[in-house]
Amino acid sequence: MSPKDPGPAISPRKCHGGSVSTPLESWVEESARLTKPAKIVWCDGSQAEADRLVDDMLRDGTFIQLNQKTFPNSYLHRSNPNDVARTEHLTFICTRKKEDAGPTNNWMAPEEAKDKVRPLFDGAMKGRTMYVVPYILGPATSPYSKVGVEITDSAYVVASMRVMSRMGKAALDRLGSSSDFVPGLHSLGDLDPERRFILQFPEEKLIWSVGSGYGGNALLGKKCFALRIASWMAREQGWMAEHMLILGLEDPTGKVTYMAAAFPSACGKTNLAMMVSALESQGYRVWTVGDDIAWMHVGSDGMLRAINPESGFFGVAPGTNGKTNPNVIKALHHDSIFTNVAMTESGEPWWEGLDGDPQESLVNWKGEKWTSSKGPAAHPNSRYTVPAKQSPSISAHWEDPEGVPISAFIFGGRRARVAPLVYEARNWQHGVFVGAMMASETTAAATGAVGVTRRDPMAMLPFCGYNMADYFRHWLDMGPKLKHPPRVFHVNWFRKGPDGKLLWPGYGENVRVLKWMLERIEGRADANDTPIGYVPTRASLTLEGLSVSPGTIEELLHVDSNDWAEELDATGKFFEKFGKRLPAEIRAEHNALAERLQRVSLTPK
Ligand code: GTP
Ligand code: SPV
Ligand code: MN
């Protein structure tokens, strides 16, 4: 980065007393020259600093105090109503060659992007405080963790980064005077979507984000670094950065099997990772390692080892209640931040699906008195930000420096039709194809239409920092590097019947599907060999205590050849975008599926 604009010389804090600046100090100085803040604060992550920030935010209205008896140290933040979700159309991968960003990413050439966006940073922090936020992604002692530094003029972002990452002194200590960190420059700018850009420069491992204060647009450690930049690093260095939860399934003997699952945004990762198992009385429990992102390396034991780069959950509030996710309800009763939820008369956070109907006494997410004509009281993408360690389900191994060994990958999405409750891929290569052909109905996590089915390979469509054809190649190459590559499954909790109602109860009942997977891994569960893969027999599923009719189970497991022929066409069109860059193995799997479907349709019933 080389801003040409001269500005007031603001000397950065000198870490080492000497006159020679570290790479971090130089970058902070350059950024200050460009953005021209009134002052610079280096964040140390201490409690005193957090308290100061809260006081400042309560004073200027960024934070609203919640009921401190029932929600101690918890606050509500209302974002600008035009800034409530990720904005994918304003998110760019800036590589020298357009082909390296690929046909599924927005692209700008690096210099063009900088020339266009630099003026938006010029003087953007006048009269504001510039916070320098060093953070570690991953456990502080893990060899797989990485350091990032976010410069931001949003105190809300600082408070959120303190929950979501290991922020402050620990990160500076790890970094020392090294240049091995990912710089991310963030300014709220004027919050006008016309002047909003989220730029990733994977070749120089740099992030620029301006014009948004919300979620993945603004907490640069999350999607920008831990997925877009990290996915690029992971391919260069032979590991994987994925949009995946990590959970441990404990069986009655106490053995824990770890699984990682990729579902698109707002499709159930947090809820699956934190579930209270419906089979707890039989000895099956779920432990949480992570709820959104997994960084995975080939371990010295030949297993794929996963760490969670984050240290908190930024979870979807609507639909969360004591039945669907009791663990998070316990976790978020203190030291939590709520964004764009509604508030009750007694100063408690509220959202649709929490309990009962909305009351006229509510204040909605915009801070207005709620009436039924005003739509949902909480924004559909309203969220809680809660430290991971506050969940009763947190795994004893969630900060293991080597990570946990992954035995299964689970792909899935929202599909009202087509995809059965669960199926298993035939092998690694087929599994990669199953991930590559994933599709899901869009949600409120990103701006734009909701409920539109789109291709979202491995749930990485908005997050892959490079050409997705090369990403498929990387996936194909990872399997053979592993002594025991994870078994690959696909799930769909969202299949609907002809009446439009969900067929599967979901949430804690999903453990029944996890148990089937475990038994497949252990070679104990039956399955039918269908064109798309192995689908459970009815008898192989543990269904006691579940009030779902046999007919409904049948519908949930049904593989319809016509539906899948259409699916095949849609994926074929999607894969065409990649031209010759699409790996031959993906094409071969596509042809093999076509043949298997053909054979079934020719077999007399
Ligand atoms: P991001 O944080 O955006 O990546 O989302 P996520 O994948 O973690 O999704 P999350 O678990 O927050 O769930 C999103 C929405 O789906 C919430 O409203 C949940 O209540 C709902 N949901 C989650 N799991 C299930 C399920 O098994 N069945 C049904 N019907 N809804 C679910
Ligand atoms: C997602 O959209 O996948 C999220 C929320 O996890 S955000 O941090 O806003 O990207
Ligand atoms: Mn996510």
Features:
alpha/beta; nine-stranded mixed β-sheet; 16 helices; 29 strands; 27% helix; disordered N terminus; binds sulfopyruvate; binds manganese (II) ion
Describe the structure.
- The protein has 605 residues and is of the alpha/beta class.
- 27% of the residues lie in helices and 21% in strands.
- It is globular.
- The N and C termini lie far apart (66 Å).
- Residues 1-12 have low confidence and may be disordered.
- It binds guanosine-5'-triphosphate, sulfopyruvate (SPV) and manganese (II) ion.
- Guanosine-5'-triphosphate binds next to α9 and β18.
Number of DSSP strands? 29
Give the radius of gyration: 24 Å
Show unreliable segments: 1-12
Gross morphology: globular
Q: How big a fraction of the residues is strand?
A: 15-25%
Ions, cofactors and other bound molecules: guanosine-5'-triphosphate, sulfopyruvate, manganese (II) ion
- The share of residues in helices is 25-40%
Question: On the 0-100 scale, what is the average pLDDT?
Answer: 96
Distance between the first and last residues' Cα:
66 Å
* SS-based class: alpha/beta
> How many helices in DSSP terms?
16
Characterize the biggest β-sheet.
Answer: 9 strands, mixed
Detail the topology: elements first, then pairings.
Layout: H1 23-35, E1 39-42, H2 47-60, E2 64-65, E3 75-77, E4 91-93, H3 98-101, E5 106-107, H4 110-121, E6 129-137, E7 146-152, H5 155-164, E8 166-167, H6 169-175, E9 182-187, E10 197-201, E11 206-210, H7 215-218, H8 221-237, E12 240-242, E13 245-250, E14 256-262, H9 269-273, E15 285-290, E16 294-298, E17 304-307, E18 312-316, H10 326-331, E19 337-339, E20 342-343, E21 349-350, E22 383-387, E23 404-412, E24 422-424, H11 428-436, E25 439-441, E26 453-455, H12 468-478, E27 487-491, H13 511-521, E28 527-530, E29 533-536, H14 550-557, H15 561-576, H16 584-602
Parallel strand pairs: 1-6, 3-19, 4-5, 4-10, 7-9, 9-11, 14-23, 23-27
Antiparallel strand pairs: 2-3, 6-7, 6-8, 10-11, 12-16, 13-14, 13-15, 16-17, 17-23, 18-22, 19-22, 20-21, 24-27, 25-26, 28-29
